[in-house]
Design goal:
heterodimer, A: mainly alpha, Formate dehydrogenase/DMSO reductase fold, B: mainly alpha, two-stranded antiparallel ribbon, rod-shaped
Amino acid sequence: MSEHTISVNKSVLTPFNLVAGVILLVGTVITVLRFTGGLAAVTNLTDDNPWGIWIGFDLLCGVALAAGGYVTSAAVYIFGLKRYHSAVRPAILTGFLGYALVVFALNYDVGRPWRLPYPFVVQQGTTSLLFEVGACVALYLTVLFIEFTPAALEWLGLKRARTLVVRLTMLLTIFGVVLSTLHQSSLGALYLIAPSKLHPLWYSGYIPVFFFVSSVIAGLSMVIFESSLSHHYFHHKMDETHLRENTGVTLGFGKAASLVLAGYFTIKVIGVSVANNWHYLTTGYGAWFLVEMLGFVALPCFLYAVGVRDKNITLIRWTSAWTVLGIVVNRLNISLIAFNWQLPSDQRYFPHWMEIMTSVFIVTIGILVFRFIVTRMPILYEHAEYK
Amino acid sequence: MPGFPTLIMKLSIGMYFFNVIHRGNDMSLTRRRFLGWIGAAGAGTLLGREANAAANVHFKGYPDSFAVLHDITLCVGCRSCEAACNTVNELPAPDKPFKDLTVLDQRRRTTAKTYTVVNRFQNETGGDKPVFVKKQCNHCLEPACASACFVRAFKKSPEGAVTYDHSVCVGCRYCMVACPFEIPTYEYDQALSPRVMKCTMCHPRVINGQLPGCVEACPKEALTFGKRKDLLDLARERIRKNPARYIDHVYGETEMGGASWLYISGVPFSQIGMREDLGVTPAPELTAGALGAVPIVVGLWPVLLTGIYAITQRKEKIAAEESRQAVMEAVSRERTVSEKEMAAAIEKAQKDKEAAIKQAVKHALDDAAKKQQEVKS
């Protein structure tokens, strides 16, 4: 008995779990501070900077990086690329958790989170892009939840319910693409109303298109990135099909990402040309814009292409991580770095450590739930009874 | 519908590419490329930069709505308006008394405790006297805050004020992001009931026939309350009568579609903290194009996606049928060949057999002949 207890303790007290535990603890304390002292107690938000990293990172990056769900399910179910089928479940799970955490994070950011249903049940502000974002995110979270349920139902052994949900696959996939197109683009369109605040190099009438196209890049790259992490940590959970198809997924998604990055680069150049913003390129912000465009768009486009040509899986995986970082850079540029660029530096925003900690806390919850699910449910393998 | 012909064109380009790649060998690659093209073509057209969905309707404000004209040249920076605002709106007591003019040393903005502030600027165009400017909500004719609010907490009243209803506010603060004049503020220190705070143009007082607090308190008549169209006339008249005293521009007449606070000044507005690069486009028009794309996306995407799905399915079906037929043909071909071989083999066996019989018969006859000879001899 005592030996058994010791062995259990050993397996639970890993360095990862200890760090995660500390983060959860700190996060809980910050949560208490946030809801007893208000936003001022834990954030650096001001009247000039009403949106901080809880919007810039948790919402904008969270939604973009959760795009793997709709990209993968569309590729497999609509475009008929069945040899990527084993990538669907992990992508749907990542997407579902991503959106769930976005909504969770919003509860910290908005002043009165218990009123979040108000725009739908009390008064509809349909002239607001935020209404569109809210409606689509709420609906898409539901869609992702239903798309995820077959795994849970197989785990629970509820065959009839599972069969029913699987029949809805096609409908849900199309619905998911429609909703994703709308809210991925609307997140960019949120900034259309503030041309006087966002730097001209990032402000564009095309910003909804930029956000949508870059969400496809984010989705493709996240599938590769997430699968390389899963390969490292959950290799034992993967079945033969998953392992056999994985190289194909990495190569295929890498090739797609390279192409979409090339298209994205082109339309970004068109954006600068249409507004004739070339002269800004010689300024400090221009240099930073070039870093984003060359370092985080053109470079990964090239590296993906080389990786696919040489069938260099390692290169593709590192490129996917770099691309994901590039998406984060882009979203933070628009929401924070190039936003309010005309304000004097002492009025600019820099996140409070507790804001950063809250974001870390939320990402940690996501990783823990992901681990809980993939170690129990048929995500990285097919359930023997449903092959 | 702006860009509709372009939409059709791009769709046909998309279909052209699809047809081209449809014949390709590496279907997995081509379909993915198609995804990118269709996405870029469709969304690119739908979400283009034209935001003139309401271009034919130029809203010039509610008729007979009220406004305030701030003659910046008359302001002496006494802060009486700030004090009155604080009193009539029952705002918290200020950190420093309103009589303390040292607060003017720093440039200030509106806060959750102050709906209005007066700022002092050096007169850059000569003149030794500083310039004082009052800042508060401009009560836009087509307010960005109201357009941005997803729960319609803001309302442009027919009297002119942009009012805010805290009882529905979720606290997303998108109004603060949207406002080009950086006016709305938030009660960040309130844990459970934070509100957006901003000037109400004393709407409750105005509908009771009273003047806004600040206008009533101004000792120098730097603020004038009245019908917006009358105030525009008044402002233009002052500029015409004193062209040396004023810049020839009524700030707020057209900025972001126009506002219910109007300003005239002796120095360029950009030198006294008022942005002149805001343009004349009302905020709602900036987002009209993106909002207009929603029904098109909802209508077109399912059709396109179902079509692509159907094509994929059909291709697979045809491929399966073709391979089935190929197998059948091969089988039947094999069968004919083997049947021929079989027949040949049977024939050969038959011949062999006949030959053997002949041989045997011949042997038997020979043997019989030999025996007969032996018997005879």
